[in-house]
Amino acid sequence: MFKAIVIDKNEEKGYHSTLTEVDEAQLPEGDVLVEVIYSTLNYKDGLAITGKGPVVRKFPMVPGVDLVGRVLESESARFKENDLVLLNGWGVGEVHWGGLAEKARLKSDWLIAMPEGLTPAQVMAAGTAGYTAMLCVQALEDKGVKPADGDVLVTGANGGVGGYSVKLLSRLGYQVVASTGRPEESDYLKALGATEIIDRQSLSEPGKPLQKERWAAVIDSVGSYTLANACAQTRYGGVVAACGLAQGMDFPATVAPFILRGVTLAGIDSVMRPLADRERAWKRLAELLVAEDFEALSHEISLDEVVQTAEELIDGKVRGRVLVKIRD
Which of 44, 112, 171, 205 is deepest in the core (most CB within 10 A)? Predict the structure, then answer.
């Protein structure tokens, strides 16, 4: 038996999430059994646990789109007992039991070896949020955006992706403008490297199809009107990396920025990303970040605090990343 957060839905209790004991025999199929050391609480996990978003597609479900752990059993030639492995995405926590548990059985194709230079806690302090932020930054770099080109806007800056985006861009020499709905967090964002803070309200309402050119590039984790306005304000030839939908998954915009200003809208998927892309992103994270960065961008909770913290996360009361310690 082992402990896990389990989401279920039935006539008696409706949709509910609880910390409970699970028999190892209930674990889904996979060729690697992992003893989980750390997991995380992402926005998607928050939606799943609270039932405020249609994330879970089969019940019962163990949430947790991220995990790092030690291999207990392996039928794969890629991994052996006691190897440290990392997982992000692949539908884990949605259609396959995830990381908010003491054990997980997974497909070896989903796993990568523990990145060199990082500890298990640091890897999960970054998690999908840090990994996604790195994919966004690399998308800007790959499209030729340079620090000298001008300001880079980061929306949803107090969230996990936003915070890591601010830190990574700043570390690389970009001038970062952070958009947030919590002005009281301005000092925190400036400490991460933001040079200017703007109120998210200035981006979150309907706007004109083309607006004053402001941004050399954008990293957006918000979607909806915020993404539409960000595109409308991006300079000629600029790049917008879109990776989230905190405001909504609609895109109330026109083609004007893309046709008249040559703006590129780059969609960033972190869930089904090929192995080589994952390894490249994690290698860059290990190169660019130091121990103090991970500490500044995250705080740690235990497995029995997850359900309550998920409510706070969805209510916008959580800063940065939530690291979930499963075992030593």
Answer: 44
In a shared domain, residues 105 and 134: no
The predicted pLDDT at position 11 comes to 83
User: Integer distance in angstroms from the first to the last C-alpha of the chain?
Assistant: 18
CA nearest to 306, candidates 5, 3, 2, 1: 5
pTM of the model: 0.92
Give me the CATH number covering residue 6: 3.90.180.10
On whether residue 155 sits in a domain, the answer given is yes
- Residue 110, amino acid: W
Count up the domains in the chain and report the number. 2
CA distance 1 to 94: 22
CA Rg, the chain, in Å? 20
Does 9 fall in a domain?
Answer: yes
Residue 143 forms part of a structural domain: yes
Rounded to an integer, what distance in angstroms lies between the CA atom of residue 20 and that of residue 1? 10
- Which residue bears the tokens 């109120």? 199
Q: What is the pLDDT of residues 255-303, one digit of tens each?
A: 999 999 999 999 999 999 999 999 999 999 999 999 999 999 999 999 9
186: number of CA atoms within 13 Å, CB side?
8
Segments forming the whole domain that contains residue 220: 128-267
Amino acid at the residue 240: V
